[in-house]
Design brief:
The protein contains six helices and seven strands. It has about 200 residues and is α/β, with parallel strands linked by helices. Strands 1, 2, 3, 4, 5, 6 and 7 form a seven-stranded mixed β-sheet that branches. The protein is globular, with a radius of gyration of 17 Å. Inosinic acid (IMP) binds next to strand 3 and helix 3.
C-alpha cells in the first residue's frame, strides 16, 4: 500500500520509508500541484492535537485530487527535556530554528538531570478513518554536539539503548529501530493491517 506523507522534511520521508517498506508499505511525499501542501500549525501544547489538526487539513486539501482515496500520513514530533519541564516539546521546531542546539546545551549547562525523550505522533487517514499512534524514545541530552547524520536534535540526543552515541552517530537503521518515529510508524502500520480497516 502507498502512504503519502504530508511533510516538507525529506529526512522524515527517508526514515519512514526505511521503517515501513520492510512492512510492505511505500512511503512517498505528498505533493499537490507539485508543491508540499501548506498546513497551518495550530496553537496547542499537545503534539497529538497538532498531528490530528494537520491531518484534517491535508484530507480537505486532497479532496477532488487524484489522492483523495489514498492513505495520508502526518507526523508531529518533539524533544521533551525533563529538567526543563518538557521544554521545548511542541515548540521544538521554533526553538531549533532560533536558539538551536547550542542554545539547548547552554540551558542545560551544569544540569545533572539530563534525561529527555523524543515523542512522535503519527496520524494516518484512510477512507474516512483516522488512526493515530505515539512513539517515545527515552535518553539523555549530551554534553556536546556529536555526529553528522540525521537531522534536528539528533546531534545532542543519546537514546538509552545507543551505548553513549547520539542519534546523529547511529546508522539510520539503528536509529529507526529505537526511535520515537520508528515506534509511532510501526504502530500505525499495525492498525492499517487490522482486518476491519
Ligand atoms: P516537527 O515534527 O517536524 O514539527 O519537528 C519538531 C522539531 O523536532 C524539529 O525541529 C525537528 O527537527 C525535531 N525532530 C523531530 N524528529 C526528530 C528526530 O528524529 N531527530 C531529531 N530531531 C527531530
Amino acid at each position: 500500500m502507498r502512504i503519502l506523507f504530508v511533510t516538507g522534511n525529506q529526512n522524515k520521508v527517508a526514515e519512514a520509508n526505511g521503517i515501513l517498506s520492510p512492512l510492505g508499505f511505500v512511503v512517498e511525499q505528498l505533493l499537490i500541484g507539485g508543491e508540499v501542501p501548506d498546513l497551518i500549525e495550530p496553537q496547542s501544547d499537545e503534539i497529538e492535537e497538532i498531528a490530528k489538526f494537520k491531518l484534517e487539513q491535508a484530507v480537505s486539501l486532497s479532496m477532488g485530487t487524484e489522492f483523495e482515496n489514498e492513505a495520508l500520513l502526518v507526523e508531529d514530533s518533539g524533544l521533551f527535556i525533563d529538567s526543563l519541564s518538557g521544554f521545548p516539546g511542541p515548540f521544538s521546531s521554533f526553538v531549533h530554528e532560533t536558539i538551536g542546539l547550542s542554545g539547548i546545551l547552554s540551558l542545560m549547562s551544569g544540569e545533572t538531570d539530563r534525561t529527555a525523550e523524543f515523542r512522535a505522533v503519527a496520524a494516518v487517514s484512510l477512507q474516512g478513518n483516522m488512526l493515530t499512534s505515539t512513539g517515545i524514545c527515552r535518553g539523555v541530552i549530551s554534553e556536546k554536539i556529536s555526529g553528522e547524520s540525521g537531522f534536528g536534535y539528533d546531534p545532542i540526543f543519546i537514546p538509552k539503548e545507543a551505548n553513549g552515541r547520539t542519534c546523529a552517530q547511529l546508522p539510520s537503521h539503528e536509529k529507526s529501530a529505537i526511535s520515537h518515529r520508528g515506534f509511532a510508524l510501526k504502530g500505525v502500520s499495525e492498525l492499517l493491517n487490522l482486518p476491519s480497516k
